[in-house]
Specification:
Elements lengths: L4 H8 L11 H9 L10 E5 L4 H14 L4 E4 L11 E3 L6 E2 L2 H15 L6 H15 L4 E5 L17 E4 L7 H4 L3 H8 L9 E3 L4 H13 L5 E2 L4 E6 L2 E6 L2 E6 L7 H16 L5 H10 L7 E2 L14 E4 L5 H17 L4 E5 L7 H6 L7 E4 L11 H10 L4 E3 L3 H10 L7 E5 L2 H11 L5
Parallel strand pairs: 1-5, 1-6, 2-5, 6-7, 7-8, 13-17, 14-15, 14-17, 15-16
Antiparallel strand pairs: 2-3, 3-4, 9-10, 10-11, 12-13
Helix pairs in contact: 3-9, 3-10, 4-5, 7-8
Catalytic activity: (6S)-5,6,7,8-tetrahydrofolyl-(gamma-L-Glu)(n) + L-glutamate + ATP = (6S)-5,6,7,8-tetrahydrofolyl-(gamma-L-Glu)(n+1) + ADP + phosphate + H(+)
InterPro entries: Folylpolyglutamate_synth, Folylpolyglutamate_synth_CS, Mur-like_cat_sf, Mur_ligase_C_dom_sf, Mur_ligase_cen
Protein name: tetrahydrofolate synthase
């Protein structure tokens, strides 16, 4: 148990809703804390539906390879809350310590009193306080949900606003059309500040461009101002400043080309003199847990027979399922192995839409629950959805049972296992495997 856990539990009780998008409570609390958001290093603010964390991972790796001190704020965490806050130091940055985190939460709790505040607002305020107290050259700040009314959107003028690919998700908060969702994401744009738009649907791109024009923002746009593609075993990036010939990213999956491109464009917009060696090192050093993470070791992987591949991904929406299915198809073209999908999802997610991408691809689907207080689909419900899609499926009580049952089966050759559907499930897996993020 972390020393900060009792404070986190108290903060959870200060608002009747888990999500209540607004900024008035945030500004009130920040003012009581001395407005730490006004004393931050240059900030690259990142919104989008998919790829935010991976884009930040690439930026962090590039900037640290260039010798810069980098603060990072991401959410949610997988195993420990500390994962959300990374503070720059001379060794390249470390997750916030329990002591520093507890002190920041104490300050937030004292400043807020019993006033209504959501958990994400309170913890974001604590993060901003920590970032304001420690020197760094840049802060990489990830939006929690949406953009316009997200608790992170208290930065007067970011060094750059990055919008990663937008798809349908959280429609109950952001709107039921892609254009409505795009307008919410575009809320992080600030008048006259630089911006980067990653690869987008045409309708989404048009919405983003209109919002940018209204705010006199001249964005750097994928397909217009920069390109990024794979050529053999190299990653090629090109913009008006020239061409970069780089190693392929360490992060697997064709979709990481899109994320790497957005990261490079943002770094070049804010730090135009970054040497090519930093971009090369960044492609090779970038890591991001539970995003096509190969569990090559650990307690869970040890349950399976030799030759079994185990992949973990927190992808949970339809767009995420599409890129995961594509990644599994690409791997199968190189090394053909039967695919087993171990799957669970929150009730708020389109489970059938996710599973549809694995029809005809997965040899078997094993449905498991998400433990804890999250409202999730039951394994039995998921079995019914998968069966309607023609998938061979069964239910298990947890991931350990699923892997043990797999190990007892007569798989020839050994299977390729993909555990996916929820970041909460990913956190359970990393904890059970003994390989939490560091």
């Amino acid at each position: 148990m972390s020393p900060s856990d009792p404070i986190l539990a108290r903060l959870l009780d200060l608002h009747p809703k888990k999500i209540d998008l607004a900024l008035d409570r945030m500004y009130r609390l920040l003012a009581a804390l001395g407005d730490p958001q006004k004393r931050l290093p240059p900030t690259i603010h990142v919104a989008g539906t998919n790829g935010k964390g991976s884009t930040i991972a690439f930026m962090r790796a590039i900037l640290e390879a260039a010798g810069l001190g980098v603060h990072v704020y991401t959410s949610p965490h997988l195993v420990r809350f500390n994962e959300r806050i990374r503070l720059a130091d001379r060794s390249g940055g470390k997750l916030v310590s329990d002591t520093a985190l507890t002190e920041a939460f104490d300050a937030v709790e004292t400043a807020n009193g019993r006033s209504p505040i959501t958990f994400f607002e309170a913890t974001t305020a604590a993060a901003l306080k920590l970032f304001s107290q420690h020197p760094a050259d840049v802060l990489l700040l990830e939006v929690g949900l949406g953009g316009r009314l997200d608790a992170t959107n208290v930065i007067d003028k970011p060094a750059c606003a990055v919008i990663t690919p937008i798809s349908s998700d959280h429609v109950e908060f952001l709107g039921h059309s892609l254009e409505a969702i795009a307008r919410e994401k575009a809320g992080i744009l600030k008048r006259g500040a630089p911006a980067v738009f990653s690869n987008q649907d045409d309708g989404v791109r048009g919405t983003l461009e209109r919002e940018a024009a209204r705010l006199e923002v001249t964005p750097t746009i994928h397909g217009q101002d920069y390109l990024c593609w794979r050529e053999g075993d190299r990653l090629i990036y090109q913009d008006e400043s020239g061409l970069l010939d780089l190693p392929l990213p360490r992060l697997p999956g064709a979709h990481q080309t899109t994320n790497a491109g957005a990261a490079i464009a943002a770094v070049r917009a804010v730090f135009p003199h970054t040497p090519i060696q930093a971009f090369e090192r960044g492609m090779l050093d970038a890591t991001w847990p539970a995003r096509l993470q190969n569990l090559g070791g650990g307690r869970l992987a040890a349950l399976l027979p030799e030759g079994t591949e185990v992949w973990l991904d927190g992808g949970h929406n339809e767009a995420g399922a599409r890129v995961l299915a594509q990644a599994m198809t690409e791997r199968n073209s190189v090394t053909p192995l039967p695919l087993v999908l171990v799957y669970s999802a929150l009730k708020s997610k389109d489970a059938e839409g996710f599973l549809r991408h694995f029809a005809g691809l997965a040899a078997q689907v094993i449905a498991v629950p998400i433990h804890g207080d999250q409202a999730s689909w039951s394994p039995e419900e998921l079995v019914g959805l998968a069966a309607r899609l023609g998938l061979n499926t069964r239910a298990e009580v947890d991931v350990v049972s699923a892997l043990r049952t797999l190990a007892a089966g007569d798989w020839r050759p050994a299977p390729r296992v993909l555990i996916a559907g929820s970041l909460y499930l990913s956190g359970e897996v990393l904890a059970a495997n003994g390989t939490p993020p560091t």
